[in-house]
Amino acid sequence: MTIADPVLQGLIDSLNAAYGLCLDDGRLEDWPEFFVEDCLYQVIARENVDNGLPAAVMYCDSKGMLVDRVVALRHANVFPEHFSRHLISRAVVTGSEGNTVTAEASYAVLQTRNDGETRIYNAGKYIDRLLVKDGAARLVSRTCVYDTHRIATLLATPI
Amino acid sequence: MNTQVRVEAQRSIPTAIDYKVYHDPEIFAAEQSNVFKGRTWCYLGLEAEIPNAGDFRTSHVGETPVVLVRGQDSKIFAWVNRCAHKGATVCRSLRGNQADGAFVCVYHQWAYDSEGTLVGVPFRRGMKGVGGYDKDFDPANHSLEKLRVESYKGMVFGTFSSEIEPLEDFLGPVMRKYIDRVFHRPIKVLGYSRQYMAGNWKLYSENSRDSYHGALLHLFYPTFGIYRQSQDSAGELTEQGFHNVFTVSKPKGDIDYTSFGDEANREMQGATKLQDERLLQFRPEIDDDVGLHIQSLFPNVVLQQIQNTLATRQIVTLGPDKTELVWTYFGYADDDEETTRHRLRNLNLVGPSGLISMEDGEAVELCQQGTIGAEGKFNFIEMGGDDVREYYAPMGMDENAVRGFWKGYLELMSDALSASTAEVPA
Ligand code: FES
Ligand SMILES: [Fe+2]
């Protein structure tokens, strides 16, 4: 096993930590800023990925679509009031070419609704392609492959 | 002094249903026998999910686990996933291929063929003359419980009833016409999602038939200033009342559907503009103007086309307040890569994260929570009248199909639904 460049490792882990906190703190409007303009974000069941099936519950292939999701969440969608909490593992860098890096990390999103109970809402892994430029990493694509293929009620807040 | 007297309350009727139907374990048990194992055809899956000999997928009829298998001769079979020996689950995967066509229970290795017939029992004669089954043990009497299976246009249904009419008659000509519409050419499966609701299956069944809530609960279109009022809608029911289809089409020939986002935004100043309109783009691919087709087939499936999304939603009843909705998304077999990507983009609208549909899961749970302890109290289903009509067209502002659902349901349940007793002051 090769040890990833510690600076690169730090950039990616920092991005993931900031990403999780951004969503958990409810700063949804900042969330699209983790992505480049021409990006892909999808949330897809592992049972689909394992069977070569492409259907995702969220599929946004532009930053504009991420913004639309956020506006809809704020003004249109109705869902149980909740907090989310992301627990994200250290990233494993799986490859790099020029300033494009691929990496994966495990995540668990806990959810606490108004009854006060905290439940494991969605567990899975991020499969990422990142652009590393000017000392910062941004997401070119993030695929959230979830193990928890039984979604409780609905999935509103991004993973 | 206030004396309380117990009286027989009114019975549920299609316009007023006793809230206990969503909670009572006895009613739930009666539904399993009268509805799901009764005189109905239950949706089990799509032929396209099991294209090859030996392909299988697990499914459900109500709460009963069932396996759908394609046999060696390409015929499709379904049997209850319960070993005839001691009741163990035989098939333990969600889906797969059993190349030799044999399903072996892991517990004592009883083996069944794809039809569900028992074909092998280890140590049937015992060992060295000791043990084993009696001479008159006949494997033919120990097969898996088999369902009658019939398909229509690639949708596979099963029934436990030996008396029920053929599937085509159960669906009737109107429902078949709309199924034909979606399955006008071969399909391919794009994937699944599973949505678990802490609510009763009938709340979801009402929801999928309720055209009244569309513009009120789901605020995505108005939020982005997308004006839909000029469209035509229609609801059609079958005679039993419990199957229905609701469609929305654009008016003949004036609006360019591909740009309706733009036009609507001009019409409704002040609304937020959609950043990426590809999300909503509609490419008509069936020879009509229908952009939304939601078809509820009693008792356990919804077939939909919303924009370019195609899906079945199978209702699995896991308990009085536990319902799983299995979404099977599909496209057409001849879709190119770009068309598939377009469908994936449109899929943002539907499913558990659907921008115009996620609220349904919440509505089901709210009604479940709100009706706890409300036995002997009744809901009110009189939007658009108190009757059940086979055709209804006033912009979806009615509950005709919800009344139709209850009409058919109450008929099947008949005596299994006793009236609640309520306490009233003497
Ligand atoms: S329970 Fe299946 S073989 Fe014994
Ligand atoms: Fe809805």
From TrEMBL, chain A:
Q: Which domain of life is it from?
A: Bacteria
**Does the keyword field hold Oxidoreductase?**
yes
The Gene Ontology terms for molecular function here are: dioxygenase activity
InterPro entries tied to this protein: NTF2-like_dom_sf, Rng_hydr_dOase-bsu
List, alphabetically, the CDD domains matched: ring_hydroxylating_dioxygenases_beta (cd00667)
Per the UniProt record, one Pfam family is: Ring_hydroxyl_B
Q: Which UniProt keywords apply?
A: Dioxygenase, Oxidoreductase
Family, according to the entry, reads as follows: Belongs to the bacterial ring-hydroxylating dioxygenase beta subunit family.
By what name is this protein known? Anthranilate 1,2-dioxygenase small subunit
Native organism taxonomy: Bacteria, Pseudomonadati, Pseudomonadota, Alphaproteobacteria, Sphingomonadales
